[in-house]
């Protein structure tokens, strides 16, 4: 039949349907609506189609009800209205329309046009399935499988999946049927049948089945293992758009499974899957960018995809994102963000993140320090199997950090970590056995674990094992083995072992004596911070043992060791200052370090008791009883011609507890090379040489005072007091205050040696120690070259000087950088390009200079006001001294700074 004839027949059919519909035939109305909907025999007109579907439905035609529901659902010929669609689906379903029943079930399932009701959805789906509808059968199987709208029933689910799958058209049902066979759900487990249905579904085009079939081939489940076939089906599924399969395909390319290794193709599929939203793929794509695998290395892209994956919930990505923030890889370094993601990853179960989160809490990195939270996360990580966390948890228990001290728990976790292979824990466990901490003392077990840790590479354990061999307590004494392990540990950078190895070389313990090697290892240990090694290195330089003699280097290392608390070094440093070995002679420093030695009470001086009265020296070679007698016998040999000055000097001599506290009347003719030095507000300052130099101790053999005997005399400053020929006690009080502060902290105040008188005008002159570098103001150009730690140390020394003043009930009335003097300085080379660093080793407050005045704080109000004034002045001074580096000295350290000022 020709197309023209067909057209004529459709037009005639339309004509008669129209006639019948207008005559009230509801079936004709439905057919007429269908013609309008599809443009058969007339022009397509959805509104007219809707009109006649509605007329027919209202007239009771079930098919029209179903069609009208579709119009409402899709908004065809009328506005979309899901409630009206549900209404007519229900009417049609109740009228027996199977298709309407199925759609009604979908409405109930999804809550479209009505409230969601899975039981009603199941009811209608079951009715349709029993009527032979394949879609309904499939959905009914899903309801039984998931227990939606009915009780879960895997056997019924299997039944309906099987019915649909055997129908040959529904590939999804085939895939799900295979899953039932694979897992033994609703039927006996049968991997061969699972493989059969995966294969059928995959060949039918189901992408998920392709992926599952690939897994069967990969693992040899229900068929022989075949990586090439696995790769083939992974590839087919990936090309079909399955994102998870894209990820799996990328993995195959990455590792060369079933195909040749191809990092570029791996990168391609990771990228595809990541762009389609697969979180695992995002993480792996980040790894490819980070390591430059299959693409150029790009840390910014690595960070981008790691962040995407982390935000998508991938815990590994969260952990690696923290590393990006921690190290500034692909983004700016940000410890707060690192902490945030460690926390997220830890809460997500990542054990490494738990360990690192604990570390952040312990050290206050990226968050406030919180030992209890640190303990919590170490415990979580330890319970998760992290051996490093076990060791650190043990340390928490041992030291009572974030929890109560518990040596038994410490021992328990050291043991767990050691048995898990952590060498640090092995060493710590050995210490527990050695000292009987948390367990019974067991030297054999101690030796066993030292040996295990040492053989595992722990340098501390190597040193401890060497000690075991050297002492022969935990095992048989074996000096050769001791030397071997000292050497291994030292080469592994253990500082204590370096020191011990140096001793071996120095004494020739089971090795040939080798002073050069001893010097080498002392030097290495000293540079690593070992104080004993610093002292021994100084001795090497002093005596030229293993190196050329170098008194300046000897002094340097004595000083480092002394500052580190080594008492022998303190004593030797005092001798350096006394004899001018490697440094300038300095009375104040000699006394300071002798006093530090005595305070530590670990050195017995040769002349500990006075030869004359057999009384114990109260300070180095200073017998107060005998010294007072000698001073008193000499009172008649001098006078200042001023009773107040005489009394001041005499009282100082009688009460002096060391040579540093001695004041003298100094004859003017004992001061030479008297030259103008500087000008104060009310007097001139001169520099001179004191020919006698300060008193050291009484010489009983020669019956005279031992003096410092500098060959060229001793440099001093002469502070000439204008109009002072008739000085009174009130005026002298100011110098008494200075002297008392000097006694309380001699290293922080310019020393007064005594008083003399100008024969030309009878004005009195204060003889004081000479500050070699002058005042702080003159040294600012050098001070700005210091690192911030040394600048802070400078300020600390000034603060400590003020502290002495305030504790004496006094205030500094004129504090400025002209009244802060630098007594000793030293330039030394710090690198090979010729740069030098200015080191300040002592700072003194010069308490009296022209406008300076002391105010005795007799009442609380005055004291409060003046102390506040001093603090304000000091803040201003700190800013000036730091020369625009206040961000470091004031802002970052303001809390510390204010505390020290208040003290």
TrEMBL record:
PROSITE patterns: PROTEIN_KINASE_DOM
GO MF, one example: protein kinase activity
Protein kinase domain: residues covered: 671-903
InterPro entries: F-box_motif, Kinase-like_dom_sf, Prot_kinase_dom, Sel1-like, Ser-Thr/Tyr_kinase_cat_dom, TPR-like_helical_dom_sf
PANTHER family hit by this protein: OS04G0476000 PROTEIN, OSJNBA0022H21.17 PROTEIN
Name of the protein described by the UniProt record: Protein kinase domain-containing protein
Annotated organism of origin: Rhizophagus clarus
């Amino acid at each position: 039949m020709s197309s023209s004839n067909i057209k004529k027949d459709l037009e005639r059919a339309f004509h008669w349907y129209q006639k019948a519909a207008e005559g009230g035939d509801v079936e004709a109305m439905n057919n007429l609506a269908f013609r309008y909907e599809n443009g058969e025999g007339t022009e397509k007109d959805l509104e007219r189609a809707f009109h006649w579907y509605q007329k027919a439905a209202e007239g009771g035609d079930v098919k029209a009800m179903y069609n009208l529901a579709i119009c409402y659902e899709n908004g065809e010929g009328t506005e979309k209205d899901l409630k009206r669609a549900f209404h007519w689906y229900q009417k049609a379903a109740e009228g027996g329309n199977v298709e309407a029943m199925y759609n009604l079930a979908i409405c109930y399932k999804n809550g479209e046009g009505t409230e969601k009701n899975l039981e009603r959805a199941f009811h209608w789906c079951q009715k349709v399935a029993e009527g032979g509808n394949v879609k309904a059968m499939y959905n009914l199987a899903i309801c039984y499988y998931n227990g939606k709208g009915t009780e879960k029933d895997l056997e019924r689910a299997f039944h309906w999946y099987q019915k649909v799958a055997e129908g040959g058209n529904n590939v999804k049902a085939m895939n799900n049927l295979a899953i039932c066979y694979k897992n033994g759900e609703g039927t006996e487990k049968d991997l061969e049948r699972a493989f059969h249905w995966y294969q059928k579904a995959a060949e039918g085009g189901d992408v998920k089945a392709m992926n599952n079939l690939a897994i069967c081939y990969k693992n040899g489940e229900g068929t022989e293992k075949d990586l090439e076939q696995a790769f083939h089906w992974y590839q087919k599924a990936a090309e079909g758009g399955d994102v998870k399969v894209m990820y799996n395909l990328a993995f195959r390319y990455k590792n060369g499974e079933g195909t040749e290794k191809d990092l570029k193709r791996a990168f391609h599929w990771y990228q595809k899957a990541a762009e389609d939203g697969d979180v695992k793929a995002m993480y792996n794509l980040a790894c490819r960018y980070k390591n430059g695998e299959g693409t150029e290395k790009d840390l910014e892209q690595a960070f981008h995809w790691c962040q995407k994956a982390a935000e998508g919930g991938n815990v590994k990505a969260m952990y690696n994102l923290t590393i990006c923030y921690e190290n500034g890889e692909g983004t700016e370094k940000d410890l707060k963000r690192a902490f945030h993601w460690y926390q997220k990853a830890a809460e997500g179960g990542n054990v490494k993140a738990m360990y690192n989160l604990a570390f952040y809490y312990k050290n206050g990195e990226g968050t406030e320090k919180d030992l209890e939270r640190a303990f919590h996360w170490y415990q979580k990580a330890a319970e998760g199997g992290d051996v490093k966390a076990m060791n650190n948890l043990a340390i928490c228990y041992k030291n009572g950090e974030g929890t109560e001290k518990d040596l038994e728990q410490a021992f328990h976790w050291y043991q767990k970590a050691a048995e898990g292979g952590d060498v640090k824990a092995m060493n710590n466990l050995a210490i527990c056995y050695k000292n009987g901490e948390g367990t019974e003392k067991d030297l054999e077990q101690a030796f066993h674990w030292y040996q295990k840790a040492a053989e595992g590479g722990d340098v501390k354990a190597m040193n401890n094992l060497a000690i075991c061999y050297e002492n022969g307590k935990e095992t048989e004494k074996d000096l050769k083995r001791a030397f071997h392990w000292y050497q291994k540990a030292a080469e592994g950078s253990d500082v204590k072992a370096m020191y011990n190895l140096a001793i071996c070389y120095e004494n020739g313990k089971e090795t040939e004596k080798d002073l050069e090697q001893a010097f080498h290892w002392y030097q290495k240990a000293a540079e690593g911070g070992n104080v004993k090694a610093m002292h021994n290195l100084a001795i090497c330089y002093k005596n030229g043992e293993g190196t050329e003699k170098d008194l300046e280097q000897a002094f340097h290392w004595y000083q480092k060791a002394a500052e580190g608390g080594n008492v022998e070094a303190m004593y030797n440093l005092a001798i350096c200052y006394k004899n001018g070995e490697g440094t300038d002679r300095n009375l104040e420093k000699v006394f300071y370090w002798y006093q530090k030695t005595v305070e530590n009470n670990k050195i017995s001086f040769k002349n500990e008791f006075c030869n004359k009265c057999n009384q114990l020296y109260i300070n180095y070679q200073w017998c107060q009883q005998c010294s007072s007698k000698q001073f008193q016998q000499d009172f008649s040999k001098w006078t200042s011609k001023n009773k107040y000055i005489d009394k001041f000097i005499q009282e100082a001599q009688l009460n002096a507890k060391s040579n540093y506290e001695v004041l003298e009347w100094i004859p003017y003719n004992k001061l030479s090379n008297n030259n103008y030095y500087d000008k104060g507000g009310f007097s001139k300052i001169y520099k001179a040489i004191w020919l006698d130099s300060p008193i050291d101790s009484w010489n009983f053999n020669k019956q005279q005072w031992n003096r410092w005997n500098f060959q060229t005399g001793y440099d001093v400053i002469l502070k000439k007091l204008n109009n002072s020929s008739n000085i009174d006690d009130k005026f002298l009080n100011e110098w008494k205050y200075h002297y008392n502060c000097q006694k309380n902290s001699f290293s922080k105040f310019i020393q007064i040696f005594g008083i003399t008188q100008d024969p030309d005008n009878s004005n009195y002159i204060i003889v004081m120690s000479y500050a070699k570098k002058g005042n702080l103001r003159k040294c600012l150009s050098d001070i700005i070259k210091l690192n911030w730690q040394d600048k802070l140390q400078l300020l600390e020394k000034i603060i400590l000087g003020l502290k002495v003043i305030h504790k004496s009930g006094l205030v500094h009335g004129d504090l400025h950088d002209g009244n802060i003097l630098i007594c000793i300085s030293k330039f030394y080379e710090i690198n090979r390009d010729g740069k030098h660093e200015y080191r300040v080793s002592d700072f003194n407050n010069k308490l009296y200079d022209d406008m300076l005045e002391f105010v005795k704080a007799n009442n609380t109000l005055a004291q409060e006001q003046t102390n506040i004034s001093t603090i304000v002045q000091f803040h201003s001074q700190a800013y000036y001294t730091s020369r625009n580096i206040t961000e470091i000295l004031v802002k970052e350290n303001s809390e510390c700074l204010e505390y020290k000022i208040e003290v």
